Amino acid sequence: MFIERYNDTIDEFQDDRIYELENTIRKLESKIKNIRTSKDKQKEPVMFYARINRSGFTLQTLSTLVFDTVILNLGEHYDKYDGVFVAPRKGIYLFSWTLSIHGGIYAVTELIVEGQGVSNSGSTGTSGGHQSASMTTLSRMKKDDHAFIRTTTYGSKHVFYSLSNHPRSSFLGMLVYEEK
């Protein structure tokens, strides 16, 4: 009788130990999965390319341009509804934009990163017809910094030209160097 109870106690103890070990293994597997997922996200490319497909339009000064037709958005960090890119990681980002401008009227734009103008491009010419203005720049950004293209304070309104079947205004950005 004593031997049976002793064996029962040993069996219960072993069952408890096995249960604890299984729980520990499940927790470790979950942690390993989370580490892998986190590392995979850090390796994901970050890049977007978007265009404006609508015809000519006019914006007032300090207005954000919304490139509403997204062609590529790896990582989903560009918002086609507000025109803002949010940096997912600290690093050096390359931005480039091209705008088609209705000639003879002001249309000057700038890249804004966290409220600061980084670079600008546009036309303040007086010639007729249609012109294009482009700029490419690099900018250091921290995680969750915001970047977008907006009109500047040159002039009172900015007139852009495009064709819906031949878009001429675009914005792209990509992470080119990740910093720790």
UniProtKB/TrEMBL annotation:
Keywords: Secreted, Signal. Residues 41-180 form the C1q domain. InterPro entries: C1q_dom, Cerebellin_Synaptic_Org, Tumour_necrosis_fac-like_dom. It is found in: Secreted. One of its GO terms (cellular component) is extracellular region. The keyword Cell inner membrane does not apply. The keyword Flavoprotein does not apply. Its main location: secreted. This is C1q domain-containing protein. It comes from Mytilus galloprovincialis (Mediterranean mussel).
